[in-house]
Amino acid sequence: MPKGASLQSGFYFPVNQELDFGYDVDFTQWNQDVHSFGINIKPAFRKQQLYLAPIVGMHYFNRDIDYSYSLGAEVGYDFERVTIRAGYKDVDEEFYDNDAFYVGVAVRFD
Questions:
Q1: In 43-79, which positions are buried (b, 16+ CB within 10 angstroms) versus exposed (e)?
Q2: 56-67 pLDDT per residue, tens
Q3: Rounded Cα gap, residues 8 and 57, in angstroms
Q4: Residue 31 and residue 72: Cα distance in Å, rounded?
Q5: pTM over cut 0.70
Q6: How many helices and strands (H and E) does the chain possess?
Q7: β pairing state of 19-29 and 5-16
Q8: Nearest CA to 95 among 71, 72, 73, 64?
Q9: From CA 55, how far away is CA 37, in angstroms rounded?
């Protein structure tokens, strides 16, 4: 059973056919006691509909953890208006369950 969840909203800006520059803001519930608000930078390296995006972010945590980095990667596949994606994020080690694997669906509003 998942211990956490995340809600994200973001944008991608095309640079060329193989690269989009993206960012998102998110709220993540890491475990029962710890949550964060953050911003992530996610350049997406594309090969047709498939992409790979490294993730670098900065998050503010509750529970006296304060600010911390976030690192990870995401892989996704674009359909016409929907993207299926999966990824991994890791943050500061000041709390238990400080990493997350995720799967999700993104809807584009072009």
A1: bbebeeeebebebebebebeeebeebebebebebebe
A2: 999 998 888 788
A3: 13
A4: 18
A5: yes
A6: 0, 8
A7: antiparallel
A8: 64
A9: 15
